[in-house]
Amino acid sequence: xxxxxxxxxxxxxxxxxxxxxxxxxxxxxxxxxxxxxxxxxxxxxxxxxxxxxxxxxxxxxxxxxxxxxxxxxxxxxxxxxxxxxxxxxxxxxxxxxxxxxxxxxxxxxxxxxxxxxxxxxxxxxxxxxxxxxxxxxxxxxxxxxxxxxxxxx
Length: 153
Prior knowledge:
Order of helices and strands: EEHEHEHEHEHE
Number of strands: 7
Distance between the termini: 8 Å
């Protein structure tokens, strides 16, 4: 008698593109990001934190978030820290990369302690974004699993 077992395999159907979300209040930075993020990624651009949080809570949550450290009028980073905490409360495994125009070590340490996956400095270049994407997003993360039954005989 043959025994069947189930094991996950990568499905070639219904494969979705990795989803990247970027939060920046500066429309020029969002436009720049739109042009430098490779086309194989689905890209969502946000200028306001509530829009980003709606996306994160939704069914099509991003696989990676790039978030500007300076949100609104807050230059202390407190708003960014609160947003980072909220994102990680909703999706604990979500990689969040903080984008900062300051190399202030205190800010870097605070963001890291709060759960930021990485920090990149502005002005960033295409190679900086490519490195972050390669490091934290893989197509394997975005491939649904299918079940295949395999005889053991």
